[in-house]
Amino acid sequence: MQKINRQNQKIAATGHAVGRVATQAAIMLMGKNKADFARHIDAGDFVTVINGSKVKFTGRKLMQKDYIHHTMHRGGLTTTSMKRVFEKNPAQLVRRAVYRMLPKNKHREILMKRLTVKA
């Protein structure tokens, strides 16, 4: 069995759009940036996003975008604006973007444990 060599990767988010930073982080977490990438092997790196509070928003996303959550009970729909999430915890905004870009399977939570976002 081949030994997995994990490295520490850093991404500076200052002045970059949230989606661009999240895409880079998701690619590194899955290991797609490596030459020996295989979909069935988890060979991704540890990723640290620095200055998560200094990301740039394009268009009017900060005012118009809403995050929707439903509790599966009657009347359980809750919406939270992107501006409120950003004011409360800027790092959470980057984490949500990366979380939604990862594959929707049982490995997503494992990959997210290797991501740290510093505001």
Structural notes for this entry:
The protein is globular and about 50 Å long. It is of the alpha/beta class. The protein contains five helices and five strands, in the order βαβαββαααβ. A three-stranded parallel sheet has the order 1-2-5, covered by helices on one side. Strands 3-4 form a two-stranded antiparallel ribbon. Helix 1 (18-30) packs across helix 4. 34% of the residues lie in helices and 19% in strands.
Brief sketch in words of this structure:
This protein is an alpha/beta fold and 119 residues long.
Largest sheet: 3 strands, parallel
Quaternary state of this entry equals single chain
Helix content, binned percent? 25-40%
Count every beta strand, where a strand is a DSSP E run of 2 or more residues. 5
The parts where pLDDT drops under 50 for at least 5 residues are: none
Task: Write out key terms for the chains shown.
119 residues, alpha/beta, Ribosomal Protein L13p, Chain: A, 3-stranded parallel sheet, two-stranded antiparallel sheet, 5 helices, 5 strands, 34% helix
